[in-house]
Amino acid sequence: MSTANIRVGIGGWVFGAWRGSFYPSGLPQARELEYAARRVTAIEINGTYYRSQSAKSFAAWAKAVPDDFVFTVKASRFCTNRRVLGEAGESIERFLGQGLSELGGKLGPILWQFMPTKQFDPDDFAAFLAMLPARRDGISLRHALDVRHESFRDPAFIAMARKAGAAIVLTDSDTHPTIADPTAGFSYARLLRAREELPTGYSEAQLDHWADVAKHWARGGRPEGFDYIEGEPPQSAGRDVFVFMINGAKLRAPAAAMALIERLKG
Fold first, then answer.
1. Nearest CA to 42 among 240, 195, 266, 265?
2. pTM, two decimal places
């Protein structure tokens, strides 16, 4: 089967500990994105969570990476870290209007991350989802929901996300719930269990497992081994897949991503 629709990457590209371990000694910082984008197939931009960026920056990032590279973009915390999500409209508009469209075809899903204390309120969450547009500046938008409270393990949330066409992020973590139910035409995973004592962050068996999961998703399947909330979902012909090595032992994230990419070539 083709794995061309599976993207594997890291969170950000600026990290001091990667210099001399992932990045060659002496590589100018201005060329780190260019270097990283030729060794992984996607990067999750996390700086947008903390502050707005300029359209000029998005355009420069798009220019620095290969034509088939994809960025996912973490939404501003001002959109998601609020008591009433239904009041986030102005913040959502400000976030979407900062220049994301400069990424063009290199724009992947937008990641909407919620605090671990944020509980599932059906009415309020429905109001939030209704504000997420399907297009912006002529570009189709895809939305991924990174919820981190056990209350979201609710069939009503699964149905709500599926109706909105939004993917629920599968988080592999010791502290956050893992929700594996597919709800969109793409799947999004954030892996947070890397261990520094392992050169690739994950064991051979763990990397084999995640390669198998990604291939199942790409075929439109639902991999075994997860505690699903609902019964068998609607069939899918196939999905785009995004897998990110995010933290745990962040030093190992690039090696973990590259090791997983190698497994997907087979």
1. 240
2. 0.96
